[in-house]
Amino acid sequence: MAGEWSAVAVAIKTRLAELGWTQQELSQRSQVSVATIRQLQNDTSSARRRNPRTLTALSEALGWSPDHLAAVADGRDPAEDPDADDPIVAELATIKESLAIMSSRLDAIEQQLADGDEPERDARSGD
After folding, report:
1. Region label for 81, one of left (φ > 0), alpha (ψ between -120 and 50) or beta (otherwise)
2. CA 1, 44, 25, 96: dihedral to nearest 10 degrees?
3. What ranges in the chain are assigned the alpha helix state H?
4. How far is the C-alpha of 58 from the C-alpha of 127, rounded, in Å?
5. What is the pTM for the complete model shown?
6. Can you tell me whether residue 79 is helix, strand or coil?
């Protein structure tokens, strides 16, 4: 990986703004620590070697192909990804995002139950 970390930082910042997400939300969806996300966004650890799984997890959480951020870090155009236009890959990314949202909601309910609180009812559920 060549290390175009400033381009990775811009890509993450731009995508978070597009999605209206915080670093915390991205952390929950990707299972990557907020500290690591912050380092990548601020390009503070450019010399530090990154685990490819970190970039894969972030790419997928952001709704991109698994090697999107690795391509950016390598100075390649992520659009050259052969899976970029694959509707199955896009649909799987959508399903994965939906599952992450459901998992986050279940985690919140479990925490409320553990704290002894009554879980909040979702207006969409009709309860």
Report:
1. beta
2. 0
3. 5-19, 23-30, 34-42, 52-61, 68-73, 87-114
4. 35
5. 0.60
6. helix
Please give the Cα distance from 41 to 104 (Å, whole number): 23
For the chain, what's the residue count?
Answer: 127
Nearest CA to 8 among 44, 37, 40? 40
pLDDT in tens, 27-76: 999 999 999 999 888 876 554 667 889 999 999 999 998 889 988 988 88
Least confident of 41-45, 103-107, 121-125: 121-125
Which pLDDT band holds residue 2 (cuts at 50, 70, 90)? very low
Residue 28 is which amino acid?
Answer: Q
Q: Write the single-letter amino acid at 40.
A: L
Tokens of 3: 């290390």
- What spatial distance separates the first Cα and last Cα of the chain, rounded to whole Å? 51
